[in-house]
Design a protein that fits this description.
7 helices, 31% helix, four-stranded antiparallel beta sheet, 6 strands, Nitroreductase-like, 196 residues, Nitroreductase, two-stranded antiparallel ribbon, alpha+beta
Length: 196
């Protein structure tokens, strides 16, 4: 495993969990206990939500049959590394809300917050999580019986981190925590300013 301080160092004082969370691709073929998985979803439950709509939904695959169902719409390049992950999750949001007069304009924003909470709680419990966008969204909706007024945003692999040597050669060099842009590159005060 990696010493995170080799790759990541906060410029300001933050909780270490934010540095600890990263997106490995190597997973152990080891089951995640039910109570641990429940804490991950419990954390997502408490994410902020506009008008308290809580539009997020999670479709979970833990059995071999459900994994095969997910593999049918995940692109081959991602199946190559996520097939050992014991848990796959489709991150879905409900795009409408009746009392809002139809469309919920913040469904994706709120669901992103729920995914963030989920990822941090996974890290707190010693789990790795890796969200991927490399899948066929239309096929995912069909295979998982997701209604029209829901959107699939990502597929997340969750489990215990494996060794990078267990990955295909071309993925091994990418199997390390990534750094982040400094704060002053993405904030501007008063008006928008693009910083390169």
């Amino acid at each position: 495993m990696y010493e995170l301080k080799e790759f990541r160092k906060a410029s300001h004082d933050i909780d270490p969990i934010f540095i600890k969370r990263w997106s490995p691709r190597s997973f152990l073929n080891k089951e995640v206990p039910e109570d641990v998985l429940n804490t991950v979803f419990e954390a997502a439950r408490w994410a902020p939500s506009a008008a308290n709509v809580q539009p997020w939904r999670f479709v979970v695959a833990r059995t071999e049959a459900d994994h095969q169902r997910f593999h049918s719409f995940i692109f081959d390049g991602n199946v190559a590394w996520c097939e050992k992950a014991p848990v796959l999750i489709a991150v879905v949001s409900k795009t409408d809300a009746e009392f809002m007069g139809g469309e919920n304009p913040s469904h994706a924003f709120d669901t992103g917050a729920a995914w963030g909470y989920l990822a941090l709680e996974a890290a707190r419990n010693g789990l790795a999580s890796h969200a991927m966008g490399g899948f066929d969204k239309s096929k995912a909706k069909e295979v998982l019986n997701i209604p029209e007024n829901y959107m699939v945003h990502a597929i997340v692999a969750i489990g215990y981190q494996g060794e990078k040597e267990d990955l295909q050669q071309q993925l091994q060099e990418r199997e390390k925590p990534s750094d982040r842009n400094e704060v002053d590159t993405f904030i501007s005060e008063g008006t928008f300013a693009e910083k390169l």
